[in-house]
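Sample intake sheet
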Amino acid sequence: HTHTHTHNTHTHTPPTSLPHTTSKMGPQLKCMSYNILSKFLGSNGIPWNMDLFDIALQREIEAEVGMDFAAWKSAVLTPSYMKYFHNTGKEALGLYYKLMRELWSVDVRSQKDIPAQLDKVTFVRDNVVEYFSLVLNQKVQATTLAGLIRQHLSEELASKTLTQLLSLEQERFSWEARGPRVVKRILEHSPDLLALQEYDFFMCASDYMGDGNNCTLHEVLYANGYDGVLAGGCLVAWKRERLGLTSLAGASCGMLKVSSSIYLSEHGDADDVSFLHPPGISAPAVNSIWNFNMEEKWHRRRRDGTVDDTPTLLKRVESRSVTLVQLSYQPGAYGSDVTVASELASGAQLNDSVWFVSTHLMTRSRDCVKTNGYPGEVRAMELETIKKITAQIVSQKAPKGRDPFPDAVIFVGDMNTTPQQQHVWAGNPSFVETVRATKEQQQPHHPQQLAMETGWDASTMTLSWSPTICLQDAFQSIHQGGERVGTAPNQVWSSRTVERTEWIDYIWVSKAFAFQPLAPTVPSNTIPDDVEPSDHIPICVDLAHVHASTV
C-alpha cells in the first residue's frame, strides 16, 4: 500500500478589519502553536495511535481474527495496555510511569530490555513482566504488545505485523526520526512567538540539524535565536532579537525551566528556576513570568456510575498549568514605521507589552462521561481560571492612568476542545446520569448545569476576559465553527489519528492585533507519517500590533 502526502503549505486569508479607524500599525509578529507529541505517547504501538499504513496487511489480520481491525484493537490490545501499562503502572511506579507506558511497545526478551529505573518490574518470560499493582493490591503479570500479537495471530502473520510496526516505530515514531522533522517544521515558519505542547523530552539529544552534532531541542532553539520558559510540559519561546522579558529590559534570559506548580513573580524563589541553556547566564529577574497549577476540581463518576456530590481536587500529577510571560519589543522591532516607533519611544502609547499565555487543557479521556458527572467541567474550569489569572495580572501590570485601549494578549495551546463543544467554551456543562441508582445508592440532587465564568460570548464567538481583553479565534474563518473539519479534499483539521479528525488547537488574539491565519493544506492520511512528525500540525498566524493614534 502506498499513500500520498501533501506538504503542509500555507496560504493567507484576508486580514481582519482594524479595531479603530484612527489606529496605526505597529510591529508585525508571527505566532505558532504546535503540539509536538509527547515522547511516551509518540508510539505506533499505543492502540489508539496504531496504524499499519498497509491496507493489505490489515485485511489479512481482519480475515484471521474475524473482526474489523479497529474493533480487534479495542477488544484485545486496549484493555491490557490501559490496565497494566497506562494506568496501573502510574500508580505503582511513581515518577517512572512513563517508562512503563513505553515498555508496552518494546519486544522484551530479557531483564536487560527493561529500563533500569523500573527496578520494581521483573522479567518473567518473553514479553511478560511482573510487578506489584497498588490498584489491584497484588502482583500482576503484564503481557506486552508483541506478546499479545503473538498470542492472537498466527506465527507468520504475527511476524509480518511486528516487523511492520517496528519499521514504522523507527522511521516515523521514534524521537530520532521525529525530532529533526519537528525542528524543520518550526524553523521553516520561523515564528517570533512559539508555544510547544507535550515538550517532555527536553533532555533528549538528537541530530536535529542533520550536521552530525547531537544536542538538545532547547539548545537548537537557542542557537536559532530563541529564549524561552519551560513549565508544566509546555515551552513558551520568543525570538530575542524581536522580543524580551519586560523585567530584563532587553537582556537575554536564555532557556529557563520553572516549577510546574508555583506562582512566579515578585513572590518567586530562585530555587524555582533552573537554566536549560546556556548554563553560564546570570540569574534572570522572574517578575515577567507566571506559572500556575490550575488546581482543577471534578465531580467524580465512580465505577458503579454514581457521581460524587461535591467536587474534589484532581491529583497534583494530573493537574494542568498555565504560563504567562510579559514581553516587550526590542529596539528596532517596529520596522519601517518611524512615526509609530517615535511615538512609542516618547511614551505616547504606553501599552506596548505583549502578553503570551500558553496552556494544554485537560485530555478528554479525563473529562468525559465515563469519568465525570459533568463532562467538560475540568476544561471549563481551566478556561475560567485562565481568564481570572490573566485579567488580574494584566490589570495589575498596566500603566496607571492609561487610556482604555485593548491589551495585547495572545492565548494559545492545545485546548482538547472542538469548536462545536460549546458547553466547554461557555462554561455550562450539564449533568449526565448513566445509571439508575438503587435505593441503597440514592444519589444526592445534582444541579442540571454548572456555571463557570469563561467569558464566552456565543453571539460574537469571542472570549471576553476584561474590559480591555477580548479574544478572537484566529482560525474561525478556517474551520468555520467546525463545519469545515473533516477528511475531504476541501476540509481541514489540526489533529488526525486513526481515532479522530478534529480541530482542537487554537491561537486566540485580542483586539490589539490585526491578524491573518495561515491556512494549512493538510495531508490526506493520518499522522505522524514520514513527513509530519506529530499527530498535530503546527498552526500559525501573522499579527500586526495596532497602536492608538496620538491625535
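Comment: The longest strand covers residues 24-35. The chain has a mean pLDDT of 84.
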